[in-house]
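Dear U.,

Please find below the material for section 3 of the report. The protein was modelled together with fe (ii) ion; I have listed the sequence and SMILES used, followed by the predicted complex structure.
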Amino acid sequence: MEDKKLFNPEGNDNIQVRKMIGGNPTNLFNLNNVKYKWANKLYRIMMENFWIPEKIPLHDDSRYYNEMTAAERKAYDGILSFLVFLDSIQTNNLPNINDFITAPEVNLILSIQTYQEAIHSQSYAYIIESIIPAERREVIYDQWRTDKILFERNKYIAQIYQDFVDDESDRNFARVIIANFLLEGVYFYNGFNFFYDLASRNLMLGTANEIKYINRDELTHCVLFANMIKEIRKEKPDFFNDEDIYEMFRVAVDQEIEWSKHIIGDAILGMNEKSIEAYTKFIANKRLRELGMNPMYEGFDVNPYKHLEKIADTHGQGDTKGNFLETTVSAYNQSSAVSGWDDF
Ligand SMILES: [Fe+2]
Ligand SMILES: [Fe+2]
């Protein structure tokens, strides 16, 4: 694949010839003239999601951290470590993808996504600094290298990202896009549910609030990548290989189950090895349907953590995950929250 020319006066921005990949844009943001209308809608939703991690108080969580069981603390630390890695690599890798997307309206929201991943990375710094005792902090930042199971699963996705950086072939790009969708759509959610599970027992409520904001952003990223994949498929029907996609899902699901069993296991009230497997296969089926593909895990169509959806709900209106695109998010806009300009 060839990346876009940055200065391209010979480009053609006509929406009749615009393509998701392989087009010839001038790179001018004429956002009054867009082909992919869903991108405008998503831009609005993503911008309305603006939030500031420090606006959520974590004092109580810092006191309750030591009241959790040893198993809960192990899961809490390990999941944080995993999330730090995921959002770090997302922040760094999204511009690599954006360089090859030839629709300005989509370039715009990929930039917003990159910025949101940076906020997520910073939110973990705030959580870790506020809650985790000083001597444990570096252990959490380093766990992605020291924990073999965590390392292997991070390596799987990161190597796919790295392969495209090293060799910008069509196949490597197709794999990077699917890997991104898997990261956004499957990898986060056992971890998110762990925090909602704690919150359902009145534990670590501040952390769960941080996670809700992150979760809300991640759902828009899922929609973005699902739409990009579907548009590319329409424009280039052979670009993605279904067998490759199913194989990547299978590896991702197996690793997610292995990791979640390793870090959560059977020692946490409200979660166990069976629910971990059922949830992971359920969410993978759901994501495959979002791509317009057949689910691959027969009999896994019920969310075993349905009762946690109320906690994850950032709108107080029932099933956030199902309805978020239709609901208003204005109540969560924190854009007037910045203070401290005098220091500059
Ligand atoms: Fe993120
Ligand atoms: Fe994301």
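For the text of the report, you could mention the following: The longest helix spans residues 205-235.

Regards,
Y.
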